[in-house]
Amino acid sequence: MNSVRGLLAASVISVQNSCFVYPACQKCFSRLILDSRRFNCLKCGCTGEAKDASYRYRLSLKIADTNDLFDITVFGSCLDPFFGVTAENLQRCIQDFNQLSGETNTDASPGALVQAVETCFIGKRFIFGV
């Protein structure tokens, strides 16, 4: 893997998915496998109770600089200021909303949230660390 790092000024063209948070392992940040009672990390073997799973931001974007298009994913708490809450709190809000609205897909983000994220990011220019 190339260890060269740099900054890229680019504009967001689109948001690539509508799932902005994921259950994350506290040790290695990999996606956890959740069932109704337990979680398991396939990467490092960490396990625990599903109610204790922590969540992390994951925002997949298509961006463009003056010459190229890129697919990037932004992870973690650097997104807290954009969402106004931690990923943990946003996940609670999504779960509460889905429960009240009768949504059966527990990973589904409410349409209003997806629209707000698109409004916040699409067409805006950011500096990305790559």
From TrEMBL:
Keywords: DNA-binding, Metal-binding, Zinc, Zinc-finger
CDD domains referenced in this protein's UniProt entry, alphabetically: RPA1_DBD_C
One Gene Ontology term of the molecular function aspect: zinc ion binding
Example GO biological process: negative regulation of intrinsic apoptotic signaling pathway in response to DNA damage
Replication factor A C-terminal domain span: 9-95
Pfam families noted in UniProt: Rep_fac-A_C
Keyword DNA-binding (UniProt): yes
Transmembrane segments: none
GO CC annotations on file: cytoplasm; nucleus
Superkingdom in the source lineage: Eukaryota
Family classification: Belongs to the replication factor A protein 1 family.
Protein name: DDIAS protein
Species whose genome carries this gene: Pandion haliaetus
